[in-house]
Amino acid sequence: MSEAFWKTKSLGEMTRPEWESLCDGCGRCCLNKLEDEDTGKFHYTRAACKLLDLGTCQCTDYKNRAKRVPDCVTLTPMNVPDLGWLPESCAYRRLNEGRGLAWWHPLVSGNPATVQEAGISVETEAYTEEGISIDELVDHIWKLPKAKRKK
Questions:
Q1: What is d(CA 57, CA 66) in angstroms, rounded to the nearest whole number?
Q2: Which partner from 27, 35, 64, 100 sits 20 to 30 angstroms from 71, CA to CA?
């Protein structure tokens, strides 16, 4: 039995399917974020990108997302280290930092439902950004919860 690809390959060595499978489908990266100019700290809001399906936490137009949402950032092995707004729980960030995947990640658990069980998914907390102005986003700041412990 061979070692899991995320344990043996760097982000840059992964195939496209391997790279895509790292996304746990939590939707956290699709939340609007505000950066504190004084501290550089990022604050997440409950307001999600208009393309995020809040029932599945999947992009409704993944292929064309960057065209439809100009500030959508396409993750690459090259830019992950520079994206300080990636959630601490994000597989791309975790692997880049040498932390490995969490117990609830579907590649580890074998079950996509563990993302919800761990409280990582935004599906019950987020709402669409439509109708919320940039100036109003500060009223929607939300502290991302830490993952629940394994049962």
A1: 17
A2: 100
CB 90 within 8 A of CB 9: no
In the block, residue with structure tokens 């809040």: 54
Instruction: Kindly state whether residue 25 falls inside one of the protein's structural domains.
Output: yes
Q: pTM, whole model, 2 decimals?
A: 0.92
- Measured on CA atoms in the order 72, 144, 6, 12, is the torsion positive or negative? positive
User: Looking at this protein, which amino acid is placed at residue 96?
Assistant: N
**In sequence order, what DSSP letters do the residues of 8-74 get, joined into one string?**
HS-GGGS-HHHHHHT-----GGGEEEEE-TTT--EEEEEEE-TTEETTTTEETTGGGHHHHSTTPPP
Tell me the C-alpha distance between 36 and 106, whole Å: 33
Q: Is 63 exposed, middle or buried (0-12, 13-18, 19+ CB in 10 A)?
A: exposed
Does some domain include residue 147?
Answer: no
Domain count along the chain: 1
Note the pLDDT of residue 1.
64
Both structure tokens of 108: 């580890």
Q: Mean pLDDT of successive 10-residue segments in the chain (151 residues)?
A: 91 97 96 94 96 95 95 95 96 97 97 95 93 93 90 69
